[in-house]
Amino acid sequence: SNIGFGFHGKFYQQKWILGYEAYLTNGFNDNLILNELNRTSFHEAKEDPDKFSVSNSGCPLITARLAIRNRNLGEIGLSFLSGIYNKWKIDGIQIDEKRSSSIIALDFNTSIFKNKINFVGEVAKSFVELPLNYSQTYGSRQMGAYCDIVATILQTKLLGWNKAKLNIGIRLDYADFNQDKFDLSKKKIYEDTWAITPSLAFRPLGTTVLRLNYKFQKVRDIVGNTPTRNGFIQFGVSSYF
């Protein structure tokens, strides 16, 4: 959620749909590189309680997306955002250089076997201008990707619901929080994580789902030591009205 304005729309041509959207909103703040995680974090930068009343940099964040969809094949979209994140001027006096943050992303979704198997995924890469004296634990480049595959294995009348579904799924996640290299050794900086999450879901209605996940995750530190392994059991309920 952010404050701002923009426009969006679609063009139709037989089985093809071209969608577009563009926005000017309040931008990120210095928490992008000033946070308890001690690394570049877009999540921390957007957790700003003042973003609905104050612009940290005084410059708008530009966000845009262009997507093309075929009703039979699926959709692919290209998006980006870019803006100044740091406070570089106070009361008209410049106190710092402007530093930009940008993300470019490619997303897709498709289905096969008459929507029995659905694929959703995205790949994103970020670029952040850092102060020259900053620690190398903060990355100027980051990259992440995920792919979520969900298959319907049963659709039948159950407990009063005419088209209840039972789904199985698997999600693959990868994030590299620092794609830079050490200044002296020129060796790669790691600090990455990857995960695989199988799931079982019951969908009584099209807009309601109960889902059970088991997430297995590996995390490497900045120098690439043996990854730590984590396991999570997750249960969620989602519905709309």
Low-confidence stretches at least 5 residues in length (pLDDT < 50)?
A: none
Shape by Cα distribution: globular
Per DSSP E runs of 2 or more residues, the count of β-strands stands at 13
Helix proportion range: under 10%
Oligomer: single chain
Q: Report the structural category.
A: mainly beta
Could you tell me the radius of gyration in angstroms? 21 Å
Distance linking N and C termini: 20 Å
Characterization of the model:
The protein is an all-beta fold and 241 residues long. The chain is 2% helix and 59% strand. It has 1 helix and 13 strands; from the N terminus they run ββαβββββββββββ. It has one helix at 42-46; strands spanning 4-13, 16-25, 61-70, 74-84, 89-90, 93-94, 100-112, 117-128, 141-158, 161-176, 192-205, 208-219, 228-238. The protein has an 11-stranded antiparallel beta sheet with strand order 1-2-3-4-7-8-9-10-11-12-13, with no helix packed on it. Strands 5-6 form a two-stranded antiparallel ribbon. It starts with a strand and ends with a strand. The model has no long low-confidence stretch (mean pLDDT 92).
Short description:
The chain has 241 residues and is mostly beta strands.
List the helices and strands and how they pair.
Elements: E1 4-13, E2 16-25, H1 42-46, E3 61-70, E4 74-84, E5 89-90, E6 93-94, E7 100-112, E8 117-128, E9 141-158, E10 161-176, E11 192-205, E12 208-219, E13 228-238
Antiparallel strand pairs: 1-2, 2-3, 3-4, 4-7, 5-6, 7-8, 8-9, 9-10, 10-11, 11-12, 12-13
